Amino acid sequence: MNNRFALIFLVTIIGISIAARLLPHAPNFTPIAALALFAGVYASKVSKWYLFTPLVAMALSDVFVGFYEPKTMAVVYASFFAIALIGFLARMFEVKLQTVALATLLGSVLFYLTTNFAVWAFSGMYAPTFNGLMLSYYMALPFLKFTLLGDLFYTALFFGSYELVRAYVPKFGTINVWNQDRSNN
Fold this sequence. Notes:
The chain has helices at 3-22, 32-41, 53-65, 70-90, 97-122, 130-139, 141-168, 170-173. The chain is mostly helical. Mean pLDDT is 87; it is low at 174-185.
């Protein structure tokens, strides 16, 4: 893909990610994890700085959504960065449905485990015991369902759109900026 299209595509999915967080939606049914995965798999081939794309989208939308307990918020942001790293590692394999699906599921579970651990550890909502931690995970199961559904939906949308354009729009499919050697710049 040419540089201009790549930038337009990335900015578009950042915009979609921010808008989806601001519009009414089911709890945790957002595209931030899909954006993180996309940035790790494709965009980080251009620059490792693109791994921070989901954090920028979160910060911009959090200005409107609102901020919350700082330690829990840090874990949420770190989880999205970890999902970008999962994408970065997944690109070592052939980008195919199974790889992307596994990376998506791994990211969803990682987000569930880390963020609910943070809620248990920092919110005071649960007893500081093993039973309190298990109760935190149990109470968050409905959120896990929406996280999985949202991550799968938006990952399919982002990766599918990108691959469709690459495959069916000759102008953009002839040059793949994500795979170019950047050492000449």
